[in-house]
Amino acid sequence: MTAAERPGVGPARNGESGQASVELLGVLPLVVALALAVFQLLSVGYASVLAANAAEAGALALAAGGDARAGVREALPGWSRARAHVNVAGGEVSVRLRPPALLRALGERLTVTGEAAVEAP
Question: Which of 4, 13, 91, 116 has the most beta carbons within 10 angstroms of its beta carbon?
Answer without folding.
Answer: 116
